Amino acid sequence: MLDASEGFTTEDGRRIGGVVMEMKNITLRFGGVVAIQNISFDIREGEIRAIIGPNGAGKSSMLNVISGFYVPQEGEVWFEGRQRPKVKPYEVARQGIARTFQNIALFEGMSVLDNVMTGRLTHMKTGILSQSFWLGRAEAEETANREVAERIIDFLEIQHIRKTPVSRLPYGLKKRVELARALAAEPRLLLLDEPMAGMNVEEKEDMSRFILDVNDEFGTTIALIEHDMGVVMDLSDRVVVMDYGRKIGDGTPDEVRNNQDVIDAYLGVAHD
Amino acid sequence: MADMNHGEGALQSLPALLERNATRFMSAPAYREKEFGIWQSWTWAETAQEIEKLALGLLDLGVNEGDFIAIIGRNRPYLYWSIVAAQSVGAIPVPLYQDANAEEMAFVLGHCGARFAIVADQEQVDKVIEVQGQLHQFERLIYLDPRGLRKYDHTSLHQFSKVQEQGDARRGALMDELKRRREKLDYDSICVMLYTSGTTGRPKGVVLSNRNVIETAKSTAGFDKLRRKEEVLAYLPMAWVGDFIFSIGQAYWCGFCVNCPESADTMMTDLREIGPTYYFAPPRVFETQLTNVMIRMEDAGKLKKWMFDHYMAHARKVGPALLDGRPVGVMDRVKYAIGDVLVYGPLKNTLGLSRVRVGYTAGEAIGPEIFDFYRSLGINLKQLYGQTEATVFVTAQPDGEVRSDTVGVPSPGVEIRIAENGEVFYRSPGVFVEYYKNADSTADTKDSEGWVATGDAGFIEEDTGHLRIIDRAKDVGRMADGSLFAPKYVENKLKFFPDILEAVVFGNKRSACTAFINIDLTAVGNWAERNNIAYASYQELAGHRRVMDTIQAHVEAVNRSVAEDEMLSGCQVHRFVVLHKELDADDGELTRTRKVRRRIIEEKYADIIAALYDGSEQISTVTEVTYEDGRKGTIRATLEIRDAAVVPLEQKMAAE
Predict the structure, then answer these.
(1) Residues in B touching A156 (Cβ below 8 Å)
(2) Where are the beta strands (DSSP E) in chain A?
(3) Interface of chain B toward chain A, CB-CB under 8 angstroms
(4) Cβ contacts (< 8 Å) between B627 and chain A: which residues?
(5) pTM score
(6) What's the pLDDT score for residue B2?
(7) Buried (b) or exposed (e) across B144-157, using 16+ Cβ within 10 A?
(8) Beta-carbon count within 10 A of A1 CB
(9) pLDDT-derived band of residue B198, with 50, 70 and 90 as boundaries?
(10) Which residues in B430-459 are b (16+ Cβ under 10 Å) and which e?
(11) 3-state secondary structure labels for all residues of B506-558
(12) Which 3 state secondary structure label does DSSP give A77?
């Protein structure tokens, strides 16, 4: 069912569309180290796509290739039917790809609201002059963007910390603020780098709920890296498994779970 | 209040009051709610329209007269409208505690046989769906927030706004029926059914008529001179009778505006933004606020700290007298005025209490220091004593006669009688109609002449006429030597220490009293931080040697104070233990209104109680805990049991 180009319908009745992003034979090297070796996979519209693998498998590198932070030496990145040329990460952001980071990268001294507003940057059109002097169009634009930001704050239930500087927040909430900032960009593809790392069970449950709701409510396509296998298997529609820079599995959670290579990679196997 | 008396005879239901408000106060705000960072507001005229649309929608869905409609969620205008809309179509609204678990919800929904429920969000929808199988009468669920619900089966699930739209669309066909049903409502129609939290056994459904609610609202609004310019913040559970009277009864009678916070977590910010003029909070809220102020003052600079201490000392001296209108010297007045500019004013503003004209606290005893702190700032905080069965008001403190140890004089229209065993009885227009489907309990509580047993023991002070409550009548017992045992009296004294969140005292029919103590994590945690005490968990902090020392000092201080009361001097705490977990409503140890359930605690912690009495120095125990989602787990702990010094009674007598 996965190869039908027009997409498919999931068990719980969600409609998964055609391919939005396609990675073709990607190879990424840092000097002599091969981080990613000849990997191909695709991401479909409206799905939650997970990339998993043991430590050092190359997951974060893969995410950085998608977000345009790394440019692979070999292979092609196709987004929305067009091959992406070598671009700067901010140009990728403008194309509608937003992300969160494994080690939270928020503006610590700024309030939650201001951080979320920075996510609106790509939607602001007025120039520096009219913004500095709060001229008509700049004001209207900020009001409109503030409304979007407030809806996301409401959606992620962080109203109570709206005016709190990020540096004063606990880790779990910072993760949620990062998600809010990424959502504020109204991305077509949302990349989450270990959204649940370092969280306790309750925080993980909350975060899972938010990820599912984001996907359900805004129809956002999500690609995520995660270590917690239980979470990944519950959340995602399809999973890519990486090990030592190679792809060793790709399919639905059930298919991946029963894949012998994946079991070996996770449980370890005697190399003789 | 002259305009209130006009056409009073016709104002015998909430829809009738709504209609009056919509025509008379038309463009004045009736509801505000903060959403998306901005206060949204609805005028009385808009409110009437919204409620009418919803009522039509309910008719369209087939609500019959006499049906019960459950209402579950946090305080939101839409849910308040639902209450009035339900009444408009002749149905009976039943607000439920939103944090009730599915099992508790199943009992209430099954007991009243609700056919419909109007709920806030997915969380509540899930709970109702979970128990739907057990409820044969239940038919339809209406929800407010569509988030996460798109994939649900919508055959019996309806979105609030769609119900309104549908009702509005069928206005022509349904309007006559709605009018007919509205006009049938009178003083004897049922206004609301509220479930008591039930410290013992199953909750009981208290049926209140329009007479109960409107008469009570009318007389108490007169007592406190409430006007239509009042602002209240609705943040206490909608299922609680107090919120019903303040946010619906009195709000509809006076026509004042009800403000709903953005979320439970933003309540303090919203309080500051609204600045209510009429404010109600249980003692716990005042305690928490005061604790926060004190913690923050500890971190303040030297000058600020000095100013705060200096002027607060002065406020304690003359503040209450000024508030009561007693004579105060000119110099003291000047100093108080300076203090007001420098300290009291800014502090009240930070607390969101600058504009409070009438503030009430009830539900539990409030510590005298806490009570005096707020009064000395010039906040007119008073106490009232009430029950669901009385439509809240039994007694209240009039302005100028406020003390921390009484609960005031009988409210207008209330008669009070003290039985021989000390139990307080009352009779008033607010006395409830009945417990729903529970004639036995109704007969036990209310006699043929309308006197209601409060279940509380107390007495009336002869010189002032104020009522003083000692304890729950059924909790008052005798020690083995025959002296009086009043656990609440001692527990309250313990809880007045900021370090102690909760206390449970045992001793009925025993030779000596013992106690369970819960530490207050905010206060003790802050103290630990200040003293460089590292801890990894609540359990570790609770069992820390120095925490135990502090608690022991508190217990001994309470013992000294208890010993001074001749009647209750036998209730001194001989041994105590600091519990390894907080007593929690999810585990059934407290009610949803946070009252201690003694019998359950006695059963659950029987091993610890045994250890308190057999002289052992520590006890290893395993406790089951319930997480918010209903799953269960266990905590293991070894608890230290300490002896506390008591004041020997003989010695005291010898000294006298």
Answers:
(1) none
(2) 8-9, 15-16, 19-30, 33-44, 48-52, 74-79, 82-83, 97-99, 189-193, 221-225, 238-243, 246-251
(3) 35-38, 147-148, 150-151, 262-263, 265-266, 269, 627-629
(4) 202
(5) 0.82
(6) 39
(7) bbeebbeeeeeeee
(8) 8
(9) low
(10) bbbbbbbebeeebeebbeeeebbbbbbbbe
(11) ECCCCCCEEEEEEECHHHHHHHHHHCCCCCCCHHHHHCCHHHHHHHHHHHHHH
(12) strand
CA distance A266 to chain B (A): 29
ipTM of the complex: 0.78
For residue B487, count CB atoms less than 10 angstroms from its CB and return exposed for 0-12, middle for 13-18, buried for 19 or more: buried
List b or e across A56-84, with b for residues whose CB sees 16 or more CB atoms inside 10 angstroms.
Answer: ebbbbbbbbbbbbebebeebebebeeeeb
**pLDDT (mean) for B153-181:** 94
Site from A152, A154, A213 to mutate, B interface, most B CB atoms within 10 angstroms = A154
Show me where the domains of chain A are located. 8-267
R_g of chain B, CA atoms, integer Å? 26
Residues of B in contact with A160 (CB under 8 A): 262-263, 265-266, 269
Mean pLDDT, rounded, for B228-240: 93
Q: Which two tokens stand for residue B428?
A: 């008033």
Measured between beta carbons, the chain B residues lying within 8 angstroms of A153 are: 36-37
Which of B513, B508, B510 shows the shortest CA–CA distance to B558?
Answer: B513
> Which of A13, A150, A160 lies closest to B266 in CB terms?
A160
Q: Show the low-confidence residues of chain A (pLDDT under 70).
A: 1-6, 269-272
d(C-alpha A233, C-alpha A247), whole Å:
18
CB contact under 8 A, A216 and B263: no
N-terminal to C-terminal alpha carbon distance within chain A: 38
B589-596 contacts: CB < 8 A, separation 24 or more?
A: B590/B502, B591/B197, B591/B198, B591/B199, B592/B97, B592/B99, B592/B100, B592/B197, B592/B237, B592/B239, B593/B197, B593/B237, B593/B240, B593/B282, B593/B363, B594/B284, B595/B197, B595/B199, B595/B364, B596/B199, B596/B491, B596/B502, B596/B504
> A8-267 adopts what CATH topology?
Rossmann fold (3.40.50)
Question: Does position B328 have pLDDT exceeding 60, yes or no?
Answer: yes
**For an interface test with A, which of B34, B35, B36, B151 has the most A Cβ atoms less than 10 Å from its Cβ?**
B36
pLDDT digits (tens, 9 = 90+) for A137-164: 888 888 889 999 999 999 999 999 999 9
**Bridge partner list, A165:** A111
State whether A159 and B263 contact (CB < 8 Å): yes
Q: Which residues of chain B make contact with A147, given a CB cutoff of 8 A?
A: 36
3-state secondary structure of B496: coil
- Name chain B contacts of A146, Cβ cutoff 8 Å: 37
> What are the backbone angles phi and psi of residue A22, rounded to the nearest 5°?
-135, 130
pLDDT digit string (tens) for B630-642? 788 888 889 999 9
Instruction: Give the single-character DSSP code of B339.
Output: H
Is the pLDDT at B294 greater than 90? The verdict is: no
Residue B68's H or E segment, with its range, is: strand B68-72
